[in-house]
Amino acid sequence: MTSVTPSEPDWEAVRRSIRVRGVVQGVGFRPFVYRLATEEHLAGFIGNDTNGVIIELEGSGRGISSFLRRLRCETPPLARIDSVTTTDIAATGESSFRIVSSEVVGSVSTGIPADAATCPDCLRELLDPIDRRYRYPFLNCTNCGPRFTITRRIPYDRPQTSMSVFPMCPECQGEYDDPLNRRFHAQPNACWQCGPRVWLETPQGASIASTDPVADTIERLLQGEVVAIKGIGGFHLAVDATNEAAVERLRQRKHRYGKPLAIMVRDLDAARAFCELTLEEEALLQTPARPIVLSRARSGSDIARSVGPGIPWLGVFLPYAPLQHLLFVDSRVNALIMTSGNLSEEPIAIDNEEARVRLGNIADAFLMHDREILQRCDDSVAAIVDGVPQHIRRARGYVPLAIPLPIETLPLLAVGGHLKNVFALARGGFAYQSQHLGDLENPTGLEFFEHSLVHLSHTFEIEPQIVVHDLHPGYLSTSWAKRYASERNLRSIPVQHHHAHIAACMAEHSLTNRVIGLSLDGTGYGTDGRIWGGEVLICTLDRFDRFAHLDYVPMPGGESAIREPWRMAFAHLISAGFREDEARELTGASDQEAHLLSRMMERGINSPLTSSLGRLFDAAAAVILKRRKVEYDAQAAIELEGVAAREADARPYLIELHQAVRDGGASVVLKLDGFWRALVDDLRRGVPLAGIAAQFHAGISDGFIAAAANARNAMGITQVVLSGGCLHNRLVARLLRAGLEEEGFEVFAHRQVSPGDGGLSYGQAAVAAAILEVEATRQ
Ligand SMILES: [Zn+2]
Ligand SMILES: [Zn+2]
């Protein structure tokens, strides 16, 4: 406890109790309030409790008003104030201001902050030769450092973190105890004397003698070696991004062949040298979450060609841990690949022993440290889409921040989708999404899911009473959810995939009324048992009707049609009325392949019907770019967008709307016969591919805008909500929003969760909350 004596009062003292909710614990909020209160000559106290912080202030009315104003505008960088409520109470004659120790009682609603990048003050100390933490790889303060990834469980206090095994030296302890110090209650506080350390190892686990392991790591990287570097949320595999042979070697060893790799660069200036950054992208790069930002690559830079083959974008991010900053102190290091330490599609390695086993055949050396990572957390990936930040992979820096729900709910678990899994826990007015978990079908994927579930449910003390899952009977998450529910005798609620997408975006914008939802997606299980994905839905949060959809086409070979887009192209062309020989020629299929596919589709063998827009993108990429096979998810669509991206004002290929005889429950079908005919005509006439690709994108957008206008005429709804994995496509996102606004619609797009399957669990939670509310009001 600390105290100061305010000046002698010459006014009648007032006392107020102030409750602050939001992200206010573990982010330097109490010392900030202490400083404000003393500067305003106010007495009283501040303490953490389970709902945030509680402050009592006593002093002049003017001082309290000034305090409240400054509380809002001088908030510490990592804090977020959601609400401030004040109550007048009786003055007690108190004469000093105190920070009272936190006592955790009852249920928790504040939890753990997200990990945050090294702040400017710490960075200055890191590079200052006379500072006692000069070049110390683990310095941090209340404004920065690891949080979520080093915490075992709440309350967020040093004994509950992996820093518990590092007793603080007297100097660090002094900082930790001083309310006016930047390191007051900075749980991971450490220095050279008392904190974690780094060392180098061979892939066989023998330590390599070195007086400066960081400098030696730099030499190894510059020689083209692959070095596994232990970070904040897991191991990275690092190589020099300007060394073609080294990048190629990393790809071979990691079994990651076509998928683009992200690069880490020294600072914003360096990022500008490699990418054509917009102002929004620059701002996003520098946020404390430090996501990988997908931006347009500058041509002619030194980056190895194999970093992002075939696409005009480059994932770039800035150092966010002191250890990473130290790698870039050497001016010879300009850009490093820093990719997740895993074999393709497996969860990222976090434990030293685990890393030795799993990465021993990939890395030439390991830069280890002895601070345990308790929560696996990949780097987040984001992009500026249509002028605003959009999550592609929401993980480090964002998790476990709460996302508000428009309807309060019983404690529930929503298990998400299948690939790129993210689950959500929800209670009351908030949902908490897990970090990106990857593919569940991977042997270690389900383990990661279950471990993370145990951790997050402890963290937020949420014991689910309801389990929410996708309709798809074949999803691993669905069977897991059903088993989990039946073992615990819990109710389970299925939610249709594309309804969940739209609900996620509605919930972000607190929309609970009826809207038109454009759910533009890869694949999701429909209520008719077919594979949906190009859907116009009329949605409330609790239910939906299917108003329109892309015409069904077969997916010859099922899943293999996703990996081999030429199959989808063949199916689309045949469905659009092209002859088999034409479809064969346009897709580059052999006689045998064409023959086989035709027979499969005719007889309906392994050819499920789909209305997927993602598959239409694949088909178009196969025809326009001759892309026969893909090596990673959405590759064909990403390449097609890359070709088209800079073409403006394209004349759209026309999608016709046909009134359906309640086909699959919908009243309108988007027909593609004329669309494909026009596209193929242009191709045959030798129109440049960039123009064809642009007209394709414009046609898609116009088709769905027309369908939305149809829905408005029929239903009188003027709000359109955009979701689904296809909204990652910047061109489609921009054309749709612009076109819909021109038509007089109010348009809503994602801000807080991914429009892709990463956002699904949040949407599932919102739907379940709405269903429960409807049931409760009926009773
Ligand atoms: Zn700091
Ligand atoms: Zn110390």
Protein described:
With 779 residues, the protein is an alpha/beta fold. Helix content is 33%, strand content 23%. Strands 6, 7, 8, 9, 10, 11, 12, 13, 14, 15, 16 and 17 form a twelve-stranded mixed β-sheet that branches. A seven-stranded mixed β-sheet has the order 27-28-24-23-22-29-30, with helices on both faces. One zinc ion (ZN) is lined by residues 168-169, 171-172, 190-191, 193-194.
3D shape? globular
Whole-number radius of gyration? 28 Å
Mean pLDDT, all residues: 92
Contiguous runs where pLDDT drops below 50 for at least 5 residues: 1-5, 104-108
**Helix percent band:** 25-40%
- Our count of helices gives 23
Short description:
With 779 residues, this protein is of the alpha/beta class. The chain contains 23 helices and 30 strands. 33% of the residues lie in helices and 23% in strands.
Q: Keyphrases for this structure?
A:
globular; 23 helices; disordered N terminus; binds zinc ion; alpha/beta; 779 residues; 12-stranded mixed beta sheet
Give the helix/strand layout.
Elements: E1 14-23, H1 29-39, E2 43-49, E3 52-59, H2 61-73, E4 80-89, E5 97-99, H3 120-126, H4 170-177, E6 198-201, E7 207-208, H5 213-222, E8 227-230, E9 235-240, H6 244-254, E10 262-265, H7 268-274, E11 275-276, H8 279-285, E12 292-297, E13 313-317, H9 322-327, E14 335-340, H10 352-359, E15 365-369, E16 381-385, E17 388-393, E18 402-414, E19 424-433, H11 445-459, E20 466-470, H12 476-487, E21 491-495, H13 497-508, E22 515-525, E23 531-539, E24 544-550, E25 553-554, H14 560-563, H15 565-575, H16 580-587, H17 591-603, E26 609-610, H18 613-625, H19 635-644, E27 656-663, E28 666-671, H20 673-684, H21 689-715, E29 719-723, H22 730-742, E30 746-748, H23 760-778
Parallel strand pairs: 2-5, 8-15, 10-13, 12-16, 18-20, 20-21, 22-29, 24-28, 29-30
Antiparallel strand pairs: 1-3, 1-4, 2-3, 6-7, 6-15, 8-9, 9-14, 10-14, 11-12, 12-13, 16-17, 18-19, 22-23, 23-24, 25-26, 27-28
Helix pairs in contact: 13-23, 15-16, 15-17, 15-18, 16-17, 18-19, 18-21, 19-21, 20-21, 21-22
One zinc ion (ZN) binds next to helix 3.
